[in-house]
Amino acid sequence: QARFVESGGDTVQPGGSLRLSCVASGMIFRIYSMAWYRQSPGKERELVAQISNSGDDINYADFAKGRFTISRADTQNTLYLQMNSLKPEDTAIYYCNAVAGTQTIVSWGQGTQVTVSS
Questions:
Q1: What DSSP assignment string belongs to 49-114?
Q2: How far apart are CA 49 and CA 64, in angstroms?
Q3: pLDDT band at 72, cuts 50/70/90?
Q4: What is the phi/psi pair of residue 2, to 5°?
Q5: Cβ atoms of 49 and 34 closer than 8 Å
């Protein structure tokens, strides 16, 4: 059964950086497009960034453009999200998932908490 384990979340000050990781198991990671999502308290889960299985096609939500970078290491079954210039509004639980178009494929993992606060 496919599953994801997200890590790397922490509490940082505004302007700080974090690198999130998502390790996949139980699936052929390299054949799937992957994405990062986030959910803040009281809000719906939203797409942060998406990367194709080849890594050639990458898309970011407007709030992530210029600050976040999604990447993947297929030999390690791992998806990354480098987040720079963090803002308090980036505070959320961050999740990864495999995607087909706009649909997620696998059950959600526990996510990793990112808190941006002074």
A1: EEE-TTS--EEE-TTTTTTEEEEEEGGGTEEEEEE-S--GGG-EEEEEEEEETTEE-S-----EEE
A2: 7
A3: very high
A4: -70, 140
A5: no
CA dist 37 and 26 (Å) reads: 20
Which residues lie closer than 8 Å to 85 by C-beta, 6 or more apart? 15, 17, 67
Q: Taking CA 71 as the corner, what is the angle to CA 59 and CA 35, rounded to the nearest 5 degrees?
A: 50
Residue 18 contacts residue 86 (beta carbons within 8 Å)? yes
Helix (H) or strand (E) holding 39: strand 33-39
**Average pLDDT, integer, range 49-64:** 96
As a whole number of angstroms, the distance between CA 24 and CA 83 comes to 20
Tens digits of residue pLDDT in 1-36 = 899 999 999 999 999 999 999 999 999 999 999 999
